[in-house]
Amino acid sequence: MKTTEDILEINKRQKEFYNTDGRAKTNFATTLWSNLRNGLLSDFRKKFDIKDRVYNEHKVWMGDLSDKKILDLGCLRGNALSLYMAENAKEYIGIDLSDVAIASLQKRIEERNCPNAKAIAIDFFSPDFKDTDFDIVYAYGVLHHFENFDLLIDRIKEKLKPGGIIVSYDPLETSLPIKLLRAAYRPFQSDKDWEWPFTKTVLKKLDTHFKIEEIRGVLGQSKYGIALNMLPISNAYKTRKIAAMVEKDWNIKRIEDIYPCMHTTMLLRRN
User: Fold this and answer.
1) CA distance 258 to 172
2) Which of 85, 110, 84, 82 is nearest to 96 (CA)?
3) Of 196, 262, 198, nearest to 226 (Cα)?
4) pLDDT at 98
5) How far is Cα 225 from Cα 138, in angstroms, rounded to an integer?
6) For 142-170, what is each residue's pLDDT tens digit?
7) Which of 239, 219, 243 has its CA nearest to residue 229?
8) In whole angstroms, what is the distance from residue 200 CA to residue 148 CA?
9) b/e per residue, 172-182, with b = 16+ CB within 10 A?
């Protein structure tokens, strides 16, 4: 199991990867997977309003930000809500390994005239990152970058005040088809050292250490709607059927119900 020192070393390589053109360092298998994720899946999410729905739900979960101190973890150049948080929070700190990406976000923050916001290039595990007492840790596509999840949980608890919340969005490896697909792809994956989609074990750890107040599923039953959407049948029929699948994924009630999904977004509260 990786130690903190191991994580810091891996993150140095991750920083180099994202500081340069990561696409130039990817092999065919990684490029193919990326094109699937950012092409076919992205178009599907957009058509059925899944992506915007996630962001809108995050805004609801975070609530009024005027008295909140927010950590935007692993934000790169800024995610879809970074500037929203920077403009509305009492205090906003966006951090990422990439100083190139952070410089871009800091410029955008200054252009929006957000005096209580800043972007810092720093490792979350670095002893130099001393800020604490965050009301919100926003982690869009970030938490699955840590192989040793126990260390990550401990670090988040150090930074998050009691009663504070985590808003997350991450890929899953909990259904057999996706697990087999990822297993076949992983040996060829360029960024495999920092890509660890959530397993059932990780979800149980989150359930043990935090209160899961909300959990939503993405691309569970509805992932089969991607194939349905390509069939030469009535668009009205396809839309109706897929929309029902999307709703079923979104409105799951138990953590076990999330297992068939490809992604999950959660509202976690520190006890």
Assistant:
1) 9
2) 82
3) 262
4) 95
5) 30
6) 999 999 999 999 999 999 999 999 999 99
7) 239
8) 14
9) bbbbeebeeeb
